Amino acid sequence: MTDNSFFPVKPEIAATAHVNADAYARMYEQSVKDPEGFWGEQGKRLDWIKPYSKVKDVNFHDDVHIRWFHDGTLNVSANCIDRHLATRGDQTAILFEGDDPGVSKAITYRELHEKVSRLANVLKKNGVKKGDRVTIYLPMIPEAAYAMLACTRIGAIHSIVFGGFSPDSLKDRIVDCDSHFVITSDEGLRGGRKVPLKANADKAVAGAPMVKHVLVVKHTGGDVAWTAGRDLWYHEEMESVSADCPPEEMSAEDPLFILYTSGSTGKPKGVLHTTGGYLVYASMTHQYVFDYKDGEVYWCTADVGWVTGHSYIVYGPLANGATTLMFEGIPTYPDVLRFWQVIDKHKVNIFYTAPTAIRSLMREGEGPVKKTSRASLRVLGSVGEPINPEAWMWYYNVVGDARCPIVDTWWQTETGGILITPLVGAIGQKPGSATKPFFGVQPVVVDNEGQILEGETEGNLCIADAWPGMMRTVYGDHERFVQTYFSTFPGKYFTGDGCRRDADGYYWITGRVDDVINVSGHRMGTAEVESALVAHPKVAEAAVVGYPHDLKGQGIYAYVTLNAGEAPTEELRKELVAWVRKEIGPIASPDLIQWAPGLPKTRSGKIMRRILRKIAANEHDSLGDTSTLADPGVVTDLIDNRMNNA
Ligand code: PRX
């Protein structure tokens, strides 16, 4: 596969798309030459309580400030629900497909309005006020969307913690944003297995004394421990309040949500998104990137615990009055036909998933896919990690029957919405390339010294100017925001990704250039895994890197030095894997642990990760400059004892 494989936009698709090639060129030019005019117009896609007169107020230098539409006021839940009631009150807003294939349910916009209003009143009744932080730790059930929207209705800031995170990770996130209210369920259900969410929340809250209430959705009916006075049943509370809750008037720059994400150093940081710009951007990208048309059924398979679930299961689709499918389960339960059967069952038109899911289903061959029709599909999407051309071709030919364009969407928790992507009716695709920037997005490729590289090139990916959906700060730590994103290449937003730009101006994301790894589309900081490992009483030192993994994209490779006198046994290896799962969650489990009598360090004691990455990737013929190593013998030992991915 080379850069030359090209899938042009089919004329019949361009003819009916929201944006064709000419419109893209014209709109893109306006968006970068006249951002005020362009976004001033686009902002009107929302209902504003008080219209904005200011559009953009941004400074990427010094202390960095980013404001969009900032003198306007609006309410997110009113935009996602109330304004649709007159025209589509009886249309399905959320289509729920349970883990168990026998369970599904359609929630109309009118029902959504009632649930969200009631839940908003439950929050108020229990002391949650505008600006307060509410932590949501729920499975993929409609109540997760109700909870998000209920927060927005009263101006509370939600912080969703993915249900796969451990009690400790949950606790850290509750404490960091000083959240007094937690919403969870008795248990989650994934692939037929129960996840003890309430029990995890109990452990977390034991270390988070600020929590006053835990609201519990009865989902599986499993037994739970109960703390009287603190714990509240969702179904009882919902009955005790009125179904009328007028939406709170919020400023465009009031915080909307916090979402914790991993960086190259330290603990996960609370990425803060605000109200107006975020929703304009989520709604616009959802409509234009997927070419969403009224009445279509749209399915994004992400979890609401990640940013993809925020922007492209809940906020973007509901702002556009779409029918959005929420799936509780996994692609392989009860068997590998599940995705394709759900597509047929609900006549899904737009399907958005992650390369890791595609690769794991591709292993099963064409057989299972071909047992299903998938005739309703019109557009396919990919997100979360680079998609390898082989997986792209399989997705295109086998899943989409060579009929559906694929939008390979590159973006990040920080960016709020999609930044680089094909538009269905405007941009031809090359397998493996995220292609071209969305409106208002100005990618620049820079070398390590920050020099801007022109034309066909490869380097670090930065964005030169702001777009409305970008994060505004790290919650409670603006200095960390400035340091993390604006100090490496001053005056530009640094993405942490490397990329290549080809002769046609197409962007190819090559992966992270920092100490963040991407495991099955889940983002993990190597420093977090290291600190979990060294917290084990037998571990003296640890260094963690990513390595190429056929299914997961990247796997987690840990070099561990034990305390003197500790024996490196198979049991201990298993114990350490279990330890990290318990400390952080299953997504952080090391795939390979190599015992390292010593780690390669410079004479000043800095671990040379570049070398560790090369050894893990089995590329020890190209270690690069090793002259600064304090003890070259360490490297020889590590190479000789490298673990195999067997
Ligand atoms: O490395 C890029 C990769 O995922 C990172 C962002 O992870 P997260 O904040 O968890 O958000 C994931 C969902 C938006 C990026 O820095 N990434 C995401 N999408 C792609 C991608 N890499 C290549 N191609 C993509 N389409």
UniProtKB/TrEMBL annotation:
Gene3D superfamilies: 3.30.300.30, N-terminal domain of ligase-like (3.40.50.12780)
Annotated catalysed reactions: acetate + ATP + CoA = acetyl-CoA + AMP + diphosphate
In-chain residues carrying the UniProt-annotated modification N6-acetyllysine: K606
Ranges where the AMP-dependent synthetase/ligase domain occurs: 82-473
Leader sequence residues: none
Membrane spanning stretches: none
Keyword DNA repair included in the entry's annotation: no
Sequence ranges assigned to domain Acetyl-coenzyme A synthetase N-terminal in this UniProt record: 24-80
Origin: domain of life: Bacteria
Assigned keywords, A-Z: Acetylation, ATP-binding, Ligase, Magnesium, Metal-binding, Nucleotide-binding
EC number(s) from the headed UniProt entry: 6.2.1.1
PROSITE patterns membership: AMP_BINDING
GO MF terms held by the record: acetate-CoA ligase activity
Residues where Mg(2+) binds: V534, H536, V539
Cofactors required: Mg(2+)
A Pfam family: AMP-binding
Ranges for domain AMP-binding enzyme C-terminal: 528-606
Entry binding sites for CoA: R190, G191, G192, R193, T308, S520, R581
Binding site for ATP: G384, E385, P386, D408, T409, W410, W411, Q412, T413, D497, R512, R523
Processing and modification events after translation: Acetylated. Deacetylation by the SIR2-homolog deacetylase activates the enzyme.
Task performed by this protein: Catalyzes the conversion of acetate into acetyl-CoA (AcCoA), an essential intermediate at the junction of anabolic and catabolic pathways. AcsA undergoes a two-step reaction. In the first half reaction, AcsA combines acetate with ATP to form acetyl-adenylate (AcAMP) intermediate. In the second half reaction, it can then transfer the acetyl group from AcAMP to the sulfhydryl group of CoA, forming the product AcCoA.
NCBIfam families (alphabetical): Ac_CoA_lig_AcsA (TIGR02188), PRK00174.1 (NF001208)
Record family assignment: Belongs to the ATP-dependent AMP-binding enzyme family.
Descriptive protein name: Acetyl-coenzyme A synthetase
